[in-house]
Amino acid sequence: MSQSTKKALIILTSHTELGSTGRKTGFYYDEMATPYWRLIDAGFDVDIASIKGGIAPPDPKTLVEPNDRPPMVAPLCVMIKQWQNSIIHMY
Predict the structure, then answer these.
(1) DSSP bridge partners of 8
(2) What is the pLDDT of residues 26-39, one digit of tens each?
(3) H/E stretch holding 50
(4) pLDDT score of 86
(5) CA–CA separation, 54 and 46 (whole Å)
(6) pTM greater than the 0.85 cutoff
(7) What is the Rg, in whole angstroms, of the alpha carbon atoms belonging to the chain?
(8) Coil/strand/helix, residue 3
């Protein structure tokens, strides 16, 4: 990476439950896709992290097969799953 490369950090939630409601939550792939690809298209090197470190939980409503996602979201689904698998192997 050259010194002129711009860097961006997308921080995802670490929450798995909405307060004490028992309702599951997490990040939405679709909501992450737009800023991610806009930053990539603008020449940024983008890192993704979670607030507490480790795995960022996807919202159960966003969990579908990558092939069922819009074209800009599907690659992120695969990338996040690979990222999460690599984190699991670190612990």
Answers:
(1) 46
(2) 988 778 888 888 88
(3) strand 44-50
(4) 57
(5) 17
(6) no
(7) 14
(8) coil
Which amino acid type is present at position 41? D
Q: How confident is the model at residue 24 (pLDDT cuts 50, 70, 90)?
A: very high
Strand partners, 11: 49
Does residue 2 surpass a pLDDT of 60? no
Query: Is residue 78 within 8 Å of residue 66, measured between CB atoms?
Result: yes
For 45, which DSSP code? Answer: E
Q: Are 49 and 42 in contact (CB under 8 A)?
A: no
Q: State the Cα–Cα distance between residues 86 and 91, nearest whole angstrom.
A: 9
Enclosing H/E stretch for 10: strand 6-12
Instruction: Report domain extents, the chain.
Output: 6-90
- The class that CATH gives domain 6-90 is alpha beta
DSSP state of 54: S
